[in-house]
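Entry 14. Ran structure prediction on the chain below.
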Amino acid sequence: MHATKMDVKDWSYNALKSIVKLNNIIGYLPVSLENVLEAVMAEVQRLYNPLMCCIHMVDEDGKMQLVAYKSKKSSSPDLHLHDSAEYCPSLRDGLPYISEEDNLCPNRRTEEGGPFYQICIPLITGKEQYGTISCQRKTPLDYEEMDVLLAIANQVSMAIQRSQLFEKLKKEKDEIYMAYKKIHSLNMQLQEKIKQLQEANKRLIQAERIAAVGRMAASLSHELNNPMSIILNRIECMRIEGYDRCMTDSIKKDIDVIYAYASKVSSIVQDMLMFSRSSPERFSPIDITEIIRAAITFYMEEISKAGCEVIFDPTKRVPLINGDPERLEMLFQNLIRNAIDAMPDGGRVFINYSENKNSIEITIRDEGVGIEPSLMERIFEPFFTTKKPGKGTGLGLTICYSIVKEHGGEIAVESTPGQGTIFKLTFPVYENE
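Output, structure tokens:
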């Protein structure tokens, strides 16, 4: 070491301080490898006063990369003839390699500046090779200096190992987190698919119910239509004859009551006939705004009497749809009729329409009493109605549902009690082949 006895003690004490200091730095997690290597270079420089000291690390391609360096020269050196780790004697043998002027490292470039000594210590743990730590100075290292440098190299190896292990754990944690997010996303998609399947199942059940009731309605309505027509005609004749024969007011009143209820039954039969009607075989391209305008005109007098107002702007042009004008007009008549009935004290009905990618959406919103949430799932059921007894047959919305479906569309409803109801209709745009 070429120093006095006191100097040796001081150096040993300083070496111990350096090892403890580095050990404390390495003990922190996560390991900041950059800070560790910088501290190592500073301690080596302070203890050994070398011409140059450096650390190389082996990358994923097996190349030696300079990661830390201190020198009395201003520029970083180009130390190796070959940057591949397999050309490094210390890594190849797993032992420190000491080179002198007459015993140069076969993979080191010669430098000017007089005689010097260099030691290259491998940074390894088990079979893992991390790199090398090199120290170059004008005098050789004694045994104690060598032991301290080996201890420092061991600390650097441990720091690199811990850093890589931490990065590996962090990467695995990130991968687990991404896998969890993917699983969560797939689970959400699965829940959405289940929800869609449940909705489709509900629609299928609804369609089956409507189909079953339609078959029954078709049979009953044809059986009832002719007798009811005869009954109404005979009652009308009785009313006419009664006035001619001076019937009593009591008999006339009874005949009027019979006629009113017979008309009600006839109206139900007519609704059943419309409900059971098969889908038309031929559709034609139509302007939906003209259909809506015709439906509004049909109920204009009743709208006015009810103190209601329909707000609709038919000037905006939208693509044609393929459909049956008569059936579609019946659809909008029923929806407008429902909106009026939902506003016993009057109010406004807003009809809007817009074009989407391949479809047209129509919304009909009223300011009426709304529908209770517990009844929402049943509003399209045959013979189900929220109106007061005698105010509806319960087939209006069922007919609407059937008409929309036979046109390849969708119908949905949103409602808040006391705030009104919105019907949303979607129809595919007509495509001219």
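Confidence is low (pLDDT under 50) at residues 2-6. Will compare against last week's run tomorrow.
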